[in-house]
Specification:
With about 280 residues, the protein is of the alpha/beta class. The chain is built from eleven helices and nine strands. The chain has helices at about 5-20, 35-45, 65-70, 75-85, 95-100, 120, 125-140, 155-165, 195-200, 205-215, 220-235; strands at about 1-5, 25-30, 50-55, 90-95, 145-150, 170-175, 240-250, 265-270, 275-280. It binds pantoate (PAF).
């Protein structure tokens, strides 16, 4: 495995190594966990034995709308590089913020529809930061394929839309959410939860499974399903609900009673004290 912080060096290495092979990019912000390593393993199945798997590790400052969130975002580069090597990543790109952004940068990539809902509504500018950095990573690495996790379902939908609308010649793959045995989705932010909060946070998976059952088996109204999820979460002390919504899985627009959309998506964002977790389930 080779690791580069310079975009010029990474580009020139990839230029000689690619030779018509698949190049599969897995963009990350580090603090890697089993969710990420499953993305690397999935990337390998796409790349094949001969292909190249490239991971980027970059805590992208322009997608944080809250300075404290950026400052407290977990960082663990040495452990991250070991995990990349263990999971067969060929190249890791670890740029510094100055490498990625010129001080007088003035161009961003903005999506105007899907990103107005859910996380986009509570984190203004977040998805412009994501689209901008992902476009830059695509231009630097020039992959044939890229892998994103379905835990950030809205992000995946927005990247798919961006690639479609801007004719970016890269196949986007969505990877399933990976969970601990108790149902908690792996997230870099879990590192900031106390052991007690980690137990509390399992309410998200239970509530989403309950919603799935009510939607698929009991035919309850969307309003009731959302209400039941809100009640289950609110019953756990220390939680603050950011949103609980049922949306169209491609457009992210909220569904109305009677809309017959498959798959619909239930998405939640909840603070456990000051740690904000997201989770979702296809209904
Ligand atoms: O999902 C993430 O970790 C980030 O949003 C991404 C895609 C690496 C862009 O910074």
């Amino acid at each position: 495995m080779q690791s580069y912080s310079s975009k010029e060096e990474l580009r020139s290495q990839l230029q000689s190594a690619r030779q018509g092979k698949k190049v599969v990019l897995v963009p990350t912000m580090g603090a890697l966990h089993q969710g990420h390593t499953s993305l690397f393993d999935y990337a390998r199945t796409i790349a094949g034995e001969d292909g190249l798997v490239v991971a980027s590790i970059f805590v992208n400052p322009i997608q944080f709308n809250n300075q404290d969130d950026l400052n407290t975002y977990p960082r663990s580069l040495t452990a991250d590089l070991n995990l990349c090597a263990e999971h067969g990543v060929d190249y890791v790109f670890t740029p510094a913020p100055e490498t990625m952004y010129c001080p007088d940068r003035s161009v961003t990539v903005e999506e105007h529809s899907l990103s107005s809902k859910l996380c986009g509504a509570s984190r203004p500018g977040h998805f412009t930061g994501v689209c901008t950095v992902v476009t830059k990573l695509f231009n630097i690495v020039q992959p044939t394929d890229a892998v994103f996790g379905k835990k950030d379902y809205q992000q995946l939908a927005i990247i798919r839309r961006m690639v479609r609308d801007l004719d970016v010649p890269i196949a986007i793959h969505g990877a399933e959410i990976v969970r601990a045995d108790d149902g908690l989705a792996f997230s870099s932010r879990n590192a900031r939860l106390s052991p007690e909060q980690k137990k509390d946070a399992t309410v998200l998976r239970r509530a989403l499974l309950q919603a799935h059952h009510e939607y698929a088996c009991e035919g309850k109204s969307l309003h009731t399903i959302i209400d039941d999820v809100r009640k289950a979460i609110a019953a756990v002390p220390g939680t603050t609900i950011d949103y609980v919504e049922i949306v169209h899985a491609e457009t992210m627009q909220p569904l109305e009673e009677g809309d017959n959309v498959s798959p619909a998506l239930m998405a939640v964002a909840v603070f456990f004290d000051d740690v904000r977790l997201i989770d979702n389930i296809e209904l």
